[in-house]
Design a protein that fits this description.
Helix 1 packs across helix 2 and helix 1 packs parallel to helix 5. The protein has one domain: Rossmann fold (3-Layer(aba) Sandwich). Strands 3-2-1-4-5 form a five-stranded parallel beta sheet, with helices on both faces. The longest helix has 30 residues. The chain is of the alpha/beta class. 40% of the residues lie in helices and 17% in strands. The chain has five helices and five strands; from the N terminus they run βαβαβαβαβα.
Length: 177
């Protein structure tokens, strides 16, 4: 579902209009995803909430800048490999969201720093109503995006932020939603 428009950070699912308007009463849950277990928990939580609220899920994968910017050929190859990884992961997660919520999610691929790209997408898309993040259990994984969005970037966040513990079971998620 990701297309070449994503290369410029302008990814929208087919049929989505640029500058989508928020529909009162309609909730879109944004999940910034990667291949960590806590992101999958956040995605499942968002899918369940979307199902029970007749809402939607949007998945964002951010390709972070390569450390090898001075070697353009290497950076370009790494970026292309990351894009392929992003698209494969998003397709897999989209199928899972569909199974949970009954609706296909909107998929976004952006390049840049995660926190900035999250805020940029939220600013551009008024249909996004809530941000859902998975927090890694203490001592495991990285909670960098959680730290960013709960500190200096929170001042610029215009929607609620839901932080889901990354060690919740599917049964615990069902009970919460």
């Amino acid at each position: 579902m990701a297309d070449n428009a994503a290369r410029n950070g302008d990814e929208h699912a087919p049929g989505d209009a640029d500058g989508a308007q928020h529909v009162p009463g309609e909730v879109t849950f944004l999940v910034c995803v990667d291949d960590t277990p806590e992101c999958r928990v956040a995605m499942r939580f968002a899918g369940l909430r979307a199902r029970y609220s007749s809402g939607h899920v949007a998945l964002l994968y951010v390709i972070e800048p390569a450390e090898f910017e001075h070697w353009m050929a290497v950076a370009d190859l790494m970026r292309e490999e990351q894009r392929q990884t992003a698209e494969e992961l998003l397709q897999s997660l989209a199928a899972e969201v569909y199974d949970i919520s009954g609706k296909m999610p909107v998929l976004h691929v952006r390049e840049g720093r995660k926190g900035e790209q999250v805020l940029k997408l939220i600013a551009e898309d008024p249909s996004i109503s809530i941000m859902v993040l998975g927090a890694a259990p203490d001592g495991e994984g990285s909670n960098e995006l959680v730290r960013q969005l709960t500190s200096e970037l929170t001042k610029r966040l215009r929607i609620p932020l839901a932080i889901v513990p990354g060690n919740l079971s599917d049964e615990q998620l069902r009970l919460l939603t």
